[in-house]
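re: ur question from yesterday

yeah so i grabbed the chain u mentioned. its 263 aa long if i counted rite. heres the sequnce exactly as i have it in my notes:
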Amino acid sequence: MDEPGTIYFTGTAGAGKTTFVRALADWMKQAGYETTVVNLDPGSESTSLDPDVDIREWVRLDDLQDEYGLGPNGAQIAAADMIALKIFDVKQAVEELKTDYVLVDTPGQIELFAFREASKAIVDALSGDRSLVAFLFDPALARNAAGFVSLLMLSATVEFRFRLPMLNVLTKSDVLTPEQLRELTRWAEDPGELHDAVTRDAPTPDVQLSTELFRAIESLGPLAGLLATSARDGSGLEPFYQSAQRVFGGGEDLEPSHAPASD
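ran it thru and got these structure tokens back, copy pasting raw so excuse formatting
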């Protein structure tokens, strides 16, 4: 069996990572692909994900708070480092399941995933040649030009930290009007459109600063587009899979290892 495709899902709190991972896993199952869902959030209280491999079997946030007298933030930081010590147990559990894809739901606080040295060690341990990061754009933040640029910069920071291929994904697109969705799509595809929106929305004294920030983003590489998705109605899940396959296999579709038999 080929090495599985590993996808890490990250983004700002509220972007809908857990909901998206569950929806994608369900879509893949229906399409005939075996998928391992991994929860790396030791403080997760979600009952909807039902992960196959759960870091809470080794590290739990409330246990750390009780044992060491830590507050929520201190416990999250301690947990991030402790996860790195347990990551080979997680890796072994993932490898034993032998599936086509591994979907990794990262901690809700993006700084714990993006900026801790332990997280880099975790990603290095779990990743193979077929790995990527999906950065999820929350439409509540992306709806205005300044928020959109801020998310692009955060996405670029994650890419710089982990040096893995990136996919920028707009979640909850069903909450946007068609015109809002078209505008965000234009911003993601046309640097001129985004620049005009940034300078138009910025107060006059801030125009130069906004322009310099935009140029910094351009210097990091071309805007790579934005995949519009909705976990609620399932839209965009198949295009997401196809985009991941272009990263993993050069566009060649993976033959489902356990596809339903044809009638």
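noticed a couple things. The radius of gyration is 19 Å. also The chain has eleven helices and seven strands.
anyway ttyl
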